[in-house]
Amino acid sequence: MKSLILLKAKSPVVYELAISLFIILSFFILSKIVNFILNKYITKLVKKTKTELDDKLLEVSQSPIRNIFLVAGIYFAIRNLQRCTSLFGPIVNYFHYFNTVLFLITILIVLLYSLRVTGIFTQWLLEREEEKESKIVKKEFVPIINKVVSVFIYLFAIAIILEHFHKDISSIVVSLGIGSLAIGLAAQDTLANMISGIFIMVDRPFRIGDRVKLETGEIGDVIDIGLRSTKIATFDHTVLIVPNAMMAKSKLTNYCYPDEKINIKVTVGVAYGTDSEKAKKIILNLVKSTDGVLDDPEPSIYFVNMGDFSIDFLVVAWTDSYRNQFVIKCKMLENIYNGLMEEGIEIPFPTQTLYVKKENN
């Protein structure tokens, strides 16, 4: 302590330089302590979690923390020297240039760290979606998210730098706004499809692999959800490309919600004079014996119509997947037809009776 006092009295310039050096060394040691705590204790905690996201964030955070501490130490060391105007004279006037350089270095550190964090988050999102059977976020969509967020980070950093140098950014913002408006008007349909594509991916009215029926009547399986359009594979071995704006505005039926279970409806007509209860019992047993028809919900049959030449029953059965609907319906119809023929129950066909009137001469 006495040596410091003597040093301050004999050579105040050396004393202030020593204090500034001590500040830098203190912040450097503090950064080492923080990194030691992160490596020794925090790392053990994050390894216990199920996700690797926190591990990667912790890994990329150590270097920026160390650099920020070092920059902060240099900044406070310079601030200490700036107080000694009488000792350093005109040199003090140049210290603000060092502060400007430190400010730019800090912005660069934060910028690079933000970009790395953005990349980690988007990669984690992609890996998380790839683990799911139904992917909402495509591989092509993740880089777009990364680029958009990166552009906003760059613009934010530029705005902070311009504000630091007391530059008016309002004119730049107005110019960007006018440019964006012009681009938006020129590419209105494209932007509408892109925004609709984002909403489809977030709202999830359908997913890749779902079977949907469009408002116009087309039915197919969704094979791709892009930013501009949705691709649907039809039963004719063709691909239907629908703009996302149209998909978002129109009504559609999703056969996969709430699950893939679907009912099968068949209308069966028998001849007048047939015992309706007997016919219902026979038809219901034939339906239950069809492979693929579920016991729960149980098949049901209803007397729905007395037509011109037949009495009609509506049969409702269930199968576990819409993919089997057509095949099981064919089996049901075949079983019903063969079973009614074996039981001697007539299945009528349209007939007409003509009455010819004779006139006497």
A few lines on this structure:
58% of the residues lie in helices and 13% in strands.
Rg, nearest Å = 39 Å
- Structural class designation: alpha+beta
Give the strand line-up of the largest sheet.
Answer: 4-3-2-1-5
Q: What general outline do the C-alpha atoms trace?
A: elongated
Secondary structure tally, helices: 11
Give an overview in words.
The chain is α+β, with helices and mostly antiparallel strands. The chain has three domains: 2-178, no CATH class; 206-254, Roll (SH3 type barrels); 262-342, 2-Layer Sandwich (Alpha-Beta Plaits), CATH 3.30.70. It contains eleven helices and eight strands. The chain has helices at 2-10, 12-47, 53-82, 85-88, 95-130, 141-164, 170-186, 188-203, 244-249, 276-288, 325-342, and strands at residues 211-213, 219-225, 229-234, 239-243, 253-254, 262-270, 300-306, 311-319. It has a five-stranded antiparallel beta sheet. The protein has a three-stranded antiparallel beta sheet with strand order 6-8-7, with helices on one face. Strand 2 (219-225) and strand 3 form a beta hairpin. Helix 1 crosses helix 2 and helix 10 (276-288) packs across helix 11. It is elongated, with a radius of gyration of 39 Å. The chain starts with a helix and ends in a 19-residue tail after the last helix. 12% of the residues are buried.
